[in-house]
Specification:
about 80% helix, single chain, elongated, 6 helices, mainly alpha
């Protein structure tokens, strides 16, 4: 069971990783002249997104709902987050590869192709939705009802067995 102190620490780690992701999305263009630093920031950003997904999955696996076998209830509740996490990670990796490919040799040259602009808009839009869904889910995972037997869980289990 997730204790209050542990949940606070996990939530702090999750929000720190989200803040780093927001920081890189906001200010990475300012480091256009230093492609190596930008590459390192992008790699750490992609790893942070992956860590956030792993942390939320581990939190889901730790719930009583999961241990009872109501995985479909958790997937139904958090489907949007899981889909947007995968979408956002994919868009971020594609955007980072494309940007670094265009700017590696001539970092002072301002290059924005139409496709890159479209990918940029999609990636940033997915980022906003990812931040919202992730923060909402991370806070919801602190609900004690997920970690103990309760009436609503018994009703959900009875519905699932029918």
């Amino acid at each position: 069971m997730l204790q209050t102190g542990n949940y606070s620490l996990v939530l702090l780690i999750q929000l720190t990783l989200l803040a780093y992701d927001l920081f890189v999305n906001s200010f990475s263009e300012l480091l256009r002249a230093a492609p190596v630093i930008q590459l390192v920031l992008f790699i750490i950003q992609d790893i942070a997104i992956l860590f956030n997904v792993i942390i939320i999955l581990l939190m889901m696996f730790n719930t009583y709902v999961f241990q009872v076998g109501l995985v479909s209830l958790l997937l139904e509740r958090f489907r949007a987050l899981l889909v947007f996490s995968a979408l956002y990670l994919t868009l971020s990796i594609c955007f980072h590869c494309w940007v670094m490919n265009l700017r590696w040799l001539d970092s002072n040259h301002f290059v924005w192709t139409d496709g890159l602009q479209a990918l940029f808009v999609f990636q940033r839009t997915a980022a906003v939705l990812y931040y919202y869904l992730y923060k909402r889910t991370a806070e919801y995972m602190g609900d004690p009802r997920l970690y103990e037997d309760s009436l609503w869980l018994r009703e959900a289990f009875a519905r699932a067995r029918q």
